Amino acid sequence: MSKTIKIIVAVIICLSVGYASGMATQSSIQTWYPTLTKPFFNPPNWIFAPVWTILYIMMGISAGLIWSKKNQSPDLVKNALLLFTIQLILNAIWSFLFFGLNNTLLALIEILLLGLLILETIKKFKPIDALAAKLMIPYLLWVGFATILNGSIWWLNR
Fold first, then answer.
1. What is the predicted pLDDT for the residue at 11?
2. What is the spatial distance between Cα 158 and Cα 16, in angstroms, rounded to a whole number?
3. Which end of the chain is more exposed for a tag (fewer CB within 10 A), N or C?
4. pLDDT, tens digit, 9 for 90 and up, residues 90-105
């Protein structure tokens, strides 16, 4: 499989996870979420879809770049992609915890773990492909912001 195909497949997987997460949260965004007290820095709802779409594309490109190096460093690539997969699963679980279960505390605990796994994924990606590691940094920053937002929402609504 060519590098381009691997990147396309990885982007499709990431966008699919994002789409599934979005579908799972739709009803709560219209019913439960508006009833919460939110901090002054809470972005408007319309910003989340385009930001996440861009991030999922960047994540997919990043994973595809790593995947394309499998023949050069099979063990490093395998471990790096395993971490990437785990953090992608945690990314989807957060949406279910926060919006599906309406559990802001459990979502906060989970997103803290997610942030650590993203950081560890970046560390594993860097020696394999520096660009792949850099493409994950905006995602780490956004999840850091989301962690602060999640924590603030939990605090304001406990």
1. 98
2. 33
3. C
4. 999 999 999 999 999 9
Looking at residue 90, its pLDDT comes to: 97
Q: What's the pTM value of the predicted model, to 2 decimals?
A: 0.95
Q: Which two tokens stand for residue 101?
A: 């279960």
Cβ neighbors of 47 (< 8 A, separation 6 or more) are none
CA distance 9 to 62: 12
Binned at pLDDT 50, 70 and 90, residue 26 comes out as: confident
The angle at the Cα of 67, spanning 96 to 86, to the nearest 5 degrees, equals 25
Put residue 37 in one of left, alpha, beta given phi > 0 → left and psi -120 to 50 → alpha: beta
Residue by residue, DSSP assigns the chain as --HHHHHHHHHHHHHHHHHHHHHHHHHHHHTTGGGS---TTPPPGGGHHHHHHHHHHHHHHHHHHHHTTTTT-HHHHHHHHHHHHHHHHHHHHHHIIIIIS--HHHHHHHHHHHHHHHHHHHHHHTTT-HHHHHHHHHHHHHHHHHHHHHHHHHHHH-
What local confidence, expressed as pLDDT, does residue 67 receive? 97
Name the band, by pLDDT with cuts 50, 70 and 90, for residue 127.
very high
